[in-house]
Design brief:
By secondary structure, the protein is mainly alpha-helical. It has 16 helices and no strands. The protein is globular.
Length: 375
């Protein structure tokens, strides 16, 4: 069969060709639309032409991929020693978690990522979205902690690596988003005292760095508990992360609520919907859809900020790398390759969160309002 006819005929082929030409024109306009853009584009291309051959030679052609420290030392840093990643991969990714139960943190990480993918589908009802956000961190905590179904109990001090990074991010977002929505509505309340207290709390959280909040949770929060009854370090840190992230998310949601047209509320009231039904079925789904890119930015920032928990002796991804190299003088000189591996993981994670947010927004717009009001 003629391939043109097989794919929809000459008109379809012409339409595809026209779309390709339009894409090329847009790309040419973006890169060479004016003298400044043309100069910058040529400069970037010249820099890539100059640096890529050397980078390719160092990273691939002359690199050592096997975990042979003698071969890596013989390179003299002329090529990358990716053997350090192969040698330390389990410790970097899983931290000090017992090797015989390594499947537990791996499954915990997959559960959290699966929950994010389910949320990004954009077609789940509100209850299913809440389940995708809340259940995976809870199940991950149970898996990492062990102590049931024949699993050995593992203290939180041994949790680390990528599963801990994902757990802090997932649990932080799952706790901060509903709290942030409640704070946003509270700041729009008609009660002056409530508005003042919430505004003071948000401004305080936004006015201090996260590392200060982590120190306060680690060393000051135990003072409010009776002797021997304090929370574990991980849960104190998680409380600080949730409160810190909720302050930023509340401002994003509050901005979306302020920009929402009052005409839709009036229309919902004319149809007989109560204020609660109006906010639940009409206002909040549209607001969250509109502010999804900003929420994704906060999620990316939180994903990267989890590296700060190392200062309170919780060894997530970057902390596990530090521990992996600190006690091994042979592999320590090849820290650059190990840090590039960590950077690649963060880049993939941030790109995934951003793409999931775009996918959720696109799916929600294609499907219309995410949920329909009750009859």
């Amino acid at each position: 069969m003629n391939p043109i006819l097989q794919h929809g005929g000459p008109r379809t082929a012409a339409r595809k060709a026209g779309g390709g030409l339009a894409d090329l024109k847009r790309l040419r306009g973006a890169l060479f639309g004016d003298p400044l853009n043309a100069l910058l584009s040529l400069g970037v291309l010249a820099l890539l032409a100059w640096s890529l051959p050397a980078l390719l030679g160092w990273a691939v052609l002359e690199a050592q991929f096997s975990p042979d420290v003698n071969a890596c030392e013989a390179l003299g840093h002329r090529g990358a020693c990716w053997g350090v990643v192969v040698e330390k991969a389990r410790f970097i990714l899983l931290g000090r978690y017992p090797a015989e139960q390594a499947w537990c943190p791996i499954l915990a990480a997959l559960l959290i990522i699966g929950g994010w993918l389910g949320t990004a589908s954009g077609r789940l009802p509100g209850v299913a979205v809440a389940a995708c956000l809340l259940l995976p961190p809870l199940l991950a905590c149970a898996l990492l902690g062990g102590g049931f179904a024949g699993l050995e109990a593992v203290p939180t001090e041994l949790w680390g690596g990528l599963p801990l990074t994902l757990l802090l991010t997932g649990a932080g977002l799952a706790g901060a988003l509903p709290l942030g929505i409640a704070i946003a509505y509270g700041r729009r309340s008609s009660l002056p005292l409530l508005r003042a207290l919430l505004t003071a709390g948000v401004e305080l959280a936004r006015g201090i760095p996260l590392v200060a909040a982590l120190f306060m949770a680690s060393f000051m929060l135990p003072l409010f508990f009776p002797e021997g009854g304090g929370l574990d370090m991980l849960w104190r840190v998680l409380i600080a992360i949730v409160l810190f992230a909720a302050a930023y998310l509340s401002e994003i949601v509050r901005g979306g609520l302020q920009a929402f047209p009052d005409g839709q509320r009036d229309g919902a009231a004319a149809l007989g919907l109560t204020p609660w039904q109006t906010e639940r079925w009409i206002v909040l789904p549209q607001v969250l859809r509109q502010v999804a890119p900003s929420l994704a930015n906060s999620g990316i920032a939180l994903f990267k900020d989890t590296s700060l928990v190392t200062v309170v002796s919780l060894y997530e991804l970057t902390g596990s790398l530090g521990l992996a190299l600190a006690g091994d003088a042979q592999w320590r000189p090849f820290y650059l390759e190990a840090w590039l591996f960590i950077a690649a993981i963060y880049w993939v994670g941030c790109s995934l969160i951003a793409r999931l947010a775009r996918l959720a927004t696109r799916s929600a717009r294609a499907a219309g309002t995410p949920s329909s009001p009750p009859p």
